[in-house]
Amino acid sequence: MKYNFTDCTPRNDVGSGKWNEMKNYTIHKPEEVIPFSVADMEFQIAPEIRDGLKTYIDTYVPGYANPTKTYFESVCRWQKDHHGWEIQPDWIMSTPGVVNAFHNAVQFLTEPGDGILLLTPTYYPMYNAVTANGRIIMGSSLTLKTDHYEIDFEDFERNAADPHTKLFILCNPQNPTSRVFTREELERMGDICMKHHVFVCSDEIHGDLIMPGHVHIPFASIKQEFADHSMTCTAASKTFNLAGFQTSAIIIKDPEIRAAFLKHQKTTEINPKCNILGYEATRLAYTFGEEWYQEMLSVIETNYKLITDFCRKELPKIQIINLEGTYLLWMDFRKYGIEGKELAELLKSKANLFFDDGYIFGSEGEGFERWNLAAPTRLVEAGLKRLKDTMESL
Fold first, then answer.
1. Which CATH superfamily is domain 17-46+290-392 in?
2. What is the DSSP letter of 100?
3. 147 Cβ contact list (under 8 Å, min separation 6)
4. Which of 317, 321, 392, 393 is 20 to 30 A from 243, alpha carbon to alpha carbon?
5. What does the DSSP 8-state code read for residue 324?
6. Contact at 8 Å (CB) between 325 and 216?
7. What mean pLDDT do residues 163-180 have?
């Protein structure tokens, strides 16, 4: 490979939330801990981004700044080249992250007491976006079919048709189940939402992280009606490991909704802009990061196959859920009969393995663990050995 996907740089004292949590928890030496939890990568960023930022800083006067024309062009070009979706620069809004964006959506599109539709289990900040803002979770449980999840459309429409339901927060690819919804599924969900006047906020931050045999389709690209009644949350942060730059591109076609979003931002956040280095890092990633991106995907695929083959042979009680998208592998430990928090404690204290525990994604995640595959393969191999030793000791 051209790029370095083998080294793992310890991040104990540089402000990494994931590494600080592990350091604070474990009584062992930090180097004994293997991080497979929070969804950022244990890879060095692409040198094209790193070196480009160095050059930029050497010549940049850090005054007040706006996103550049080349930033907007890079976002538009990436969506067209990778997802066949043609967007316009003036559709693009800025937030420090997609979590901010769907919080904003809840606040400016709904009222306290309104229902927010979620496919569950789901990314846990989505639950908080609903409850912290005084709204009601309208959860439609995905149905587990051994190694993959399916939408219960009857239940989905029942929730969408409830007169309280005003907003559907879609996560596609779905976190934590990794489902990449098909065009048919997206169209059916969209038609139901349009029928019942439910606006769609589509979190597509994992949309570039797709496994072979699957295709990410932006929700707003399917029909004009969908584009006019939705907002799409994207960023380079998951694809290129840039979360610390806190820069997301929120794509809203309808000018009235865009204006309402901006008005709400100015009311709640005052300055609806991001850090200029985040804009530049995004531009560099989308302009020069293609080769790094493709190699990174191949490492994720290698790690997925390694875990799947190992568990099938050595740990057959663990059911691996098919990885369709994201770099987050959903694993079913329920055949061991261990309660979720007890399982999490076992893996941390005995194996020194830090996953994201399934129960934080909702009640349907009880007995599951989410394994972050964006790490050097040698760490995955070491993690599998620890996992085997721990589970076989029960």
1. Aspartate Aminotransferase, domain 1 (3.90.1150.10)
2. H
3. 319, 320, 321, 322
4. 321
5. -
6. yes
7. 99
- Where are the CATH 3.90.1150.10 domain residues in the chain? 17-46+290-392
| Residue 91, token pair as written in the block | 């559709």
Amino acid 330 reads: W
- H/E element holding 164? none
CA gap 149, 304 in Å, rounded: 18
Taking only the tens place, the pLDDT of each residue in 185-218 is 999 999 999 999 999 999 999 999 999 999 999 9
Residue 328 CA to residue 376 CA, distance in Å, equals: 14
CA–CA gap between residue 231 and residue 110 (Å, rounded): 14
Rounded mean pLDDT of 258-279?
89
Kindly state the tokens that stand for 68: 């550049």
pLDDT cut 70: percent of the chain above it = 95
Class of domain 65-288: alpha beta
- The two tokens of residue 298 are 């191949």
Give how far the C-alpha of residue 222 lies from the chain's centroid of Cα atoms, to the nearest Å.
21
Torsion sign (Cα): 273, 277, 281, 287: positive
Query: Would the pLDDT of 25 be above 80?
Result: no
Q: What residues have CB less than 8 Å from 280, skipping those under 6 apart? A: 52, 53, 56, 68, 71
- Do residues 285 and 236 touch, judged by C-beta distance below 8 A? yes
**Do residues 358 and 369 touch, judged by C-beta distance below 8 A?**
yes
> Which residues make Cβ contacts (< 8 Å) with residue 128, sequence separation at least 6?
none
List of residues 6+ apart from 109 with CB closer than 8 A: 166, 167, 199, 201
Residue ranges of the chain that CATH labels 3.40.640.10: 65-288
Q: Which helix (H) or strand (E) holds 220?
A: none
Cβ atoms of 159 and 182 closer than 8 Å:
no
Q: Would you say the C-alpha torsion 117, 123, 124, 130 has a positive or negative sign?
A: negative
For 377, list phi and psi in degrees, rounded to 5.
-60, -35
pLDDT at position 32 over 70: no
Half-sphere exposure of 125 (CA within 13 A, CB side): 14
Q: Which residue has the tokens 């592990």?
A: 22
DSSP 194: H
Whole-model pTM over 0.90: yes
| pLDDT (0 to 100) of residue 273 | 84
Strand partners, 168: 117, 200
**Predicted local confidence at residue 61, as pLDDT:** 84
